[in-house]
Each structure stands twice: as C-alpha cells, then as structure tokens.
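Usage

Read records sequentially. Each one opens with the input sequence:
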Amino acid sequence: MKIRTLVSILILVLAVLIISEGYATEKRVTKRDYKFFSGTRINEEYNSHHFPAKYVIRRDGTFDCYFRTTDTKVAVNGHYVIVEKWTDLEGNIWYKSHTWEGVMVEGKPWRYELDKVSNSGKVWEYIALPGDFPTELDENNFHYHIYYRQ
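and closes with the structure output:
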C-alpha cells in the first residue's frame, strides 16, 4: 500500500514538472527571438521630433538610431538584451529588454523596455524607462513610441 501511494505521488510530481516546463519554455529567449525582433523600423512622424525616426536593429543585440528616416549618419548606437518574452492571445509578441548606449555602466541598463511586436511583425511599440520595467503599454505616456517595419 505504501509503495502504491509513493508511486502515485511520484507520478503526480513528475506530471507537474513536465507541465510547468512546457509553460516555462514560452518565456525562454532564443536566437530566433533576436531574428524576429531585428530589422529596420521607422516612423516618419518622428522626423520633426527629438525622438529617433529610424532604428536599425540587428540580430547580434546591437542597434543604430537615426534622427531622420533619411539620415545616413548614426546618431546613437547601442546594445539590447531580451530578458523575457511571451505571446498574447492575439499572437502579438511581447518582450522585456534592457538597452544601453556604448558600454554598460556599473552593470546597469540605460533603459528598461516593454516592447510589443504585432502578430504580423510589421508594428513595434515600446515604452522605455530608466529605473524599472514599465507595467503597461500606455499610448499616452511620453515614453511611448511606435515604429513600422521598413
């Protein structure tokens, strides 16, 4: 009787571990995430603002910013690290990422981002804050930005 109970408990624990591993893989970041996240993204409305109007985001975790979509001289270059990702019910992919210019100072990111890439991959929205990850993607927030795949 004790062996039967012990075996039942072990099977239950094993089943829970297998199921929880399946959910954990949804947030595991892979090279494929960097491939999907990368590309050239622009917003021509930002040509007349102080925000970058164009990002060139590469798979190796680097990016270049341009203040005008027609600029050929890089305004800012930096690095990003995707620290978490998930997919919502509509198929949009969400990321939490760290970004910084040049070399990371004291091991701290320059910005904490909440990024959303549309299910088509054509629209990238984000909010970046200096101290911690944003909790929502609020279009009325000063730090909200939207870009379109070029």
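Summary fields computed downstream for this record:
- The two ends are 67 Å apart (CA to CA).
- The CA atoms of residues 94 and 116 lie 4 Å apart.
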